[in-house]
Every structure is written in C-alpha cells, then in structure tokens.
Amino acid sequence: MYLSTIDRPGAKGRGRGVAVVGGNVLALGTVSLVTDVSAEMVTAVLPLYLVLGLHLSPVAYGVVDGVYTGATALLRIVGGFVADRVRARKALAGFGYALSAVAKLGLLAAGRSLAGIGFVVAVDRMGKGLRTAPRDALITLSTPPSALGRAFGVHRTMDAVGAFLGPLVALAVLAGSGQSYDAVFVTSFCVAVLGVAVLVLFVREHGQPSPSVARPAVRDAAALLRSGDVRRLVLAAALLGVATIGDGFVYLMLQRRTEIGLLWFPLLAVGTSLGYLLLAAPLGVLADRIGRRPVLLAGYAALAVTYLLLVAPVGGWALLVAALGAYGLYYAATDGVLMALAGPVLPDALRATGLALVQTGQALAYVASSVLFGLAWSAWGPTAAVLAAAVVAVVAGGTTAGLLFYKGRTA
C-alpha cells in the first residue's frame, strides 16, 4: 500500500462533521485534556525553575529537555508492542498515565538535585512513552479511515484545551502560593489522578481481533520496517524531530526578546496552545479533504517562520502574537496529521507498534536536536543558533516532501 493511496481524501467522511467521531475518541480526548492540564502546569514553569532557579546552562537545559522527550523513545515501542501482544491497549495506556501522575510528586522529593530532577523527568516521560501509542491506536481503531484526520484533530483540540488551561492554572497556583513551585507540583498530581479516573471509567477497549487471529510476535513487529511506506514515515517523523528545538528554548528566546516578566512566563505556553486549540480540528478536516501530506508540510513552513520571527527586528506584543501563532500552527499541522497519515498503512494487529515506531523516530531525533541546539546557543549565541535551526527546518521540510511524495502524486 503506497502513501499516495492512503493519503487520498476520503469521500465517505465528507460533510459529516463530528458525527464520525465516536464516544471513545471523545473519552480519550477528555483524558488527554485533563492530563495535559497537569503536564503543562509543570512544563510551563520548568524552564524558569531550571535555568533561572537552578542556574542551568543552555547545554545542561538542552540535555534535560532532550531527556524529557527522549526518555519516551524506546518505551514507545515496548508499550506499543506489548499493547498489541496482550490486546490490552486501555490497560497499558492507563498504567502510563498513572506513572506520569506519580512522577509529579517525585519532583517534590528531587528538590534542587539536578540528577533527581533528571530521573523524575525520565519517569514522567516513560509514562508518556507507554501510553501514547496504545492511545493513538485506540483512536485509529475507533474511527473510519476516511475520517482519521478529523478524529485526531478533535482529539488534539481537546488535548490543546488542557495545554491552554495548564499554564493558567500554574500561574494561579504560583500567585496564590507565594511563588511556590512545590504547590504547582502537588496540584499537578491531583489533576493527573483525575485523568486516570476518567480513562478507567469511560474509555472502552476497541477493535479486538478474533481469538483465532494469532498474536503478533517480535519478528512481526520487526517486519514492519520492511515496508517502504513505513520506513518513509519513520524517516519523515525523525526529520520532524530534528527540525524541532523544543518549547523551552522558543519561550526562553521570546522572554529575552520581549523582556516579559517572569511571573507571566507560563502564558507563553498558553499562546501556543491557543493557536493549536483553534487550528487542530479545522486542519484535521482539511487534511481529510485535500490530503494529509500537504498539511504536514505546511507545518514545516510554520516552524521555519517561527524561528525567523524569534530573530526578527520587531518586538513587543507583535512579536509574541506572530511567533506563538505560527508555533501553534506548526503543532496543529503536524501532530495529529502525522498519526492520521500513518494509521492506514499499519495492520490492525500491529497498529500500536507501528505508531510507536513513528513516534520513536521523532523522539530520538528530538533528543539530538535539543542537545545540539543547546551547544549551538552556548557556542554561537542565541541568534545564530536560531537562524541555524531555521535552515534545518527548511531542509528537513524539503527532504520530507521528497520522502512522502516518492510514490505518485497527492490526490
């Protein structure tokens, strides 16, 4: 099955709006919404806590930021394969959500220890690594192939609502607790527990194969990479990871450029989430109609524009609105769309494993990107480092276009 066949806009889902989005997708979206409130509370304050509170260098922050995403890499594959093997995607996703919830309390125990913080961050990302592929597999198995862009758009929109609210909650907790990071971590844990409860009560296991269908073996998972379509998707995801320097660096650069007060720093994440929130569902519908590859490539363009805005000769609110809007567009055009592009290529029995391969390619590449950008910041200064990142984004986007359009033309 070629990418050109699975990327063709489907006629069946056209004009049906959210009617094709089932209850399972909405329940999973609710879980992601609540969990993202918890996660983004921590994410919004972590750059300040590490760079300004613990005085980490850009290189050290790049390492921690890389671990924050890279720790999910191998566990994504393990989690995806185990979920397919035991046919319990909901249970494994629930364990991952619970592990991330416990990690929020671990930040209290870590205190000011960089090693302790790094370990807790790794545990939190392990939880994300275990849950992401089974969750996305449940979405693909609960949705007609022609409506996958819409389904992931709705899910990512709900996810973005949580990302939008998380920094606001963190800001409120900081203001009400006298700038106590511990209060943020405890509140984040309580919210994360609520997300686990929603998953247990409302998400259904879906798309179970007949008992007569053999359970996938390790050799079956390895055989996925023999498919040219799967290899190209994994490479495309890796290129996306290479092009991404990470939210923390983007927000720190904006803070330097605009001299926004430290109390308001968490609101930078809110701006990105607002753009994501407004655009994820419309871009998902657009991807189903015109093809998912053009939308994905538009995301690369938005990322390059974001980087260029970070060094543009403008400042103030104009810079904040333009940069955060472009950054939100980047996420909306790539996150769920990449999963929608991958879903139809993968067999049902190995859906979680295949999605995990794609996600792992992106996560491993992001580790290298984050560390290298931290080194570039230290060696060349922030402006030159961001300009180099913009060049990488353009090259990565062009290479991705070559990979995804290798077989035929977009419908």
Automatic annotation (TrEMBL):
In the UniProt record, does the keyword Transmembrane occur?
Answer: yes
Q: How does it sit in the membrane?
A: Multi-pass membrane protein
What keywords tag this UniProt record?
Membrane, Transmembrane, Transmembrane helix
Q: What is this protein called?
A: MFS transporter
Q: Which InterPro entries match?
A: MFS, MFS_dom, MFS_trans_sf, Sugar_transporter_CS
Domain Major facilitator superfamily (MFS) profile intervals:
24-408
Cell cycle listed as a keyword: no
TM spans (from-to): 18-39, 59-83, 160-177, 183-203, 233-254, 260-283, 295-312, 318-342, 363-380, 386-406
Where located?
Cell membrane
> Mind telling me which CDD domains this protein's record contains?
MFS_MJ1317_like
